[in-house]
Amino acid sequence: MRKSGQITVFLSLALLCIFSLMCGLIESARTAGARCYLKLAADSAMDSVFSEYHREAWDEYRLFLLEAGDESDILDSWNQYMEPYMDSSGWYSMEVESSEILDKVSITDDGGAHLNQEILDYMKYGIIKDMPDSQGAEDILKNIKEASSVDSLSQSYTEHTKEAVRLERALEDINDCLRAQKEYWQEAQNEISNYDGSGFKDKAKKLKREMERIPSLVSKYGKLADELKKNLEETNRKKKALTKDISSNMQKAISEEANSYDSYVNQDGARRKQVEALTEKMNLQQPIIEQAIERADKVEDIIDNWVYVDEDDEGPDLTELWGSVDTIWDRIQIPALSYSNGVKEPEKQKILEQVVGFAQKGLLTLVLPEGSEVSKGVLNGNSFPSASMQDGDGSKLNLLERIIFEEYSSRFLTNFCSAEEKDYKYEMEYLIGGKKQDEDNLKTVVTEIVAIREGMNLIHILSDPQKREEANALAGVITGVTGAAPLAGVVAFFIMGVWALGEAIVDVRMLLEGKKVAFVKSKDTWNLTLSNLLELGKKGKTDGGKGGDKGLDYTGYLKLLLFLGKQQVQTYRLMDIIQWNLSKNQEDFLMENCVYQAEIKGKVKTKHIFFGGSNPFYSLDVKTEKAY
Question: Is 70 exceeded by the pLDDT of residue 126?
Fold first, then answer.
């Protein structure tokens, strides 16, 4: 009996198609699963690599830094962490063939943007007390800019006051010369009355020498006057440019005081004409002096060579002979200026100028508290990140982020007032000054804080009618004039500027003593009287002022200086400090070897389960990246 196999063949073919489809689906799912498994393995291995962050950097500065001196270190570590995943790949049957780093970003790259980001990421979890908001930050910046502009103008006008005083001293020299001429003229006339020819000629020659000094004195006066006028014009242009940073009330107060300088220069026009006319007048008098001396010589010859006729001859008529000399001498006219110099108390003026001199030459000595010592720490090293810093955009931090950076710096860095002792102690000061020596950075910071305080103090003085009146009164004593005399106004503004500087010196001394200083002064928080200011100028030292609970301490003012500085520069200097401290326990530590972000490409060999023929192996590529 014959049987048909059509059904069996058909079923076999159908099952073959079904099994092929199922195997294809399974292989496709397995391949997709392999890719997913590979991506998971690569990312997990990269997470493990970045978990090997520098533990001391985290403990000391709360920063994640992956130290890798060479790219191979990252690759070796990644391959090592990939091995367990490859060994456990099961039916995926994977094996890493090769790997390479596509991109590596160091913490020192991109203008320090990555370090700034790590700081912001950490600090957002911190508790920051009394931190201003964006509007508060803008107000602080506005106040600092105004203080800086006012201080800049004050320093310019202080120099103009010195120039005006030098001009007054030049006028004093001219008046002294004219007074000396008058005295020599009178003494010479007395010698004529005494019939003393040699005495007369000696005084006449001295008079002539004094007259010969006038041209150089007049020239000196003219140069000083021209210099003052030129420099004042420059300051007026400067004042106009700084107007945008100064409030309208303060602009008005400054203009009221600065007008004295313009009035003084304008007044000098008429005075200068009289001064310059002296040269011609001296030229007219000198021939008369020479004529009188020649006549005196002839008179002496007549007397010495007189021939007596007889015993009754009484000799030459001395009155008539010397009278001829006196007649010539009377023709000499010693001019006098209708203007006298306006500095009647030069000692007080010099004392005030000494305050400025002390601040310029020995400021650190003035502000250091009794018994305190300046750190002699030196930052040694040639491979600091800041040495390789390139100008670039870096990270654009807004005002609030800048304040967060400053808060971070104050938490993790030391400064003059810190209790912790280090070989290189003034770390916050280094962010501002950038010098290798602690002492140099402290000098830089002290100078900048004094400048801010000087501007803020002058703003207070100009806003306080009582203090302005006190300054005007002292100016009246120094110049010997009262009222609205231009020179008195010039000296008064100078006194205000020096007073603000003296108060700033007291302020900084208080800060270094650990006290707080009000950012905006009031009558209650003001320390230095004018009498104390003069004592400061005499002795070159001052006592600290009274502290209070309100205001900013030394660290607070360091934050203000950081707020005004260049962010990128400060970021790289922060890296310098971190590297310096971490290298003490690890000599080869370098910030440039610390990785912030990396991207790796791996090539994995796997094989088909159901297909592949004689060569069932194929490759899969995977990319993974990680950043702190």
Answer: no
Tokens of 159: 């120099």
The neighbour count for residue 463, using CB atoms within 10 Å, is: 15
Host H or E run for residue 86:
helix 71-87
CA 245 to chain CA centroid, Å, is 18
Distance, in Å, from the CA atom of 537 to the CA atom of 351, rounded to the nearest integer, reads 5
Q: In whole angstroms, what is the distance from residue 570 CA to residue 427 CA? A: 11
If 0-12 CB within 10 Å is exposed, 13-18 middle and 19+ buried, where does residue 554 land? buried
The rounded distance, in Å, linking the Cα atoms of 470 and 254 is 17
- The two structure tokens encoding residue 152: 């800049």
Judge contact between 574 and 384, C-beta under 8 A. Answer: no
Other beta carbons within 10 angstroms of residue 423's beta carbon come to 14
Sign of CA dihedral 561, 565, 567, 569: negative
Q: Are 592 and 66 in contact (CB under 8 A)?
A: no
What does the pLDDT look like over 140-188, one tens digit per residue? 778 888 888 888 888 899 899 989 989 989 999 999 999 999 999 999 9
% of the chain residues with pLDDT over 90: 50
- pLDDT at 70 > cutoff 70: yes
Q: How many CB atoms lie within 10 A of CB 383?
A: 12
Q: Is 322 exposed, middle or buried (0-12, 13-18, 19+ CB in 10 A)?
A: buried
Q: Could you please report the per-residue DSSP string of 486-538? A: HHHHHHHHHHHHHHHHHHHHHHHHHHHTT--B-SS--TTT----HHHHHHHHH
Candidates 35, 50, 46, 102; CA nearest to 79 is 46
Alpha-carbon separation of residue 189 from 105, 202, 211, 299, 318 (angstroms): 94, 12, 17, 15, 15
- Angstrom distance (rounded) from CA 575 to CA 114: 11
Write the DSSP symbol of residue 522. -
Supply the Cα-derived Rg of the chain in whole angstroms. 44
Place of tokens 């090293």: 381
The H-or-E segment that residue 621 falls in is strand 617-627
* 572: pLDDT strictly greater than 90: yes
Tokens 């006051």 locate to: 161
Q: Which residues, in sequence order, are CB contacts of 542 under 8 Å at separation 6+?
A: 366, 502, 505, 506, 509, 528, 532, 535, 536
Helix axes 554-564, 134-193, angle to 10 degrees: 90
| pTM attached to this predicted model | 0.81
Total residue length of the chain: 628
- DSSP-derived secondary structure for 268-328: HHHHHHHHHHHHHHHHHHHHHHHHHHHHHHHHHHHHHTPPP-STT-----HHHHHHHHHHH
Token reading at 426: 């003034």
CA distance 205 to 476: 40
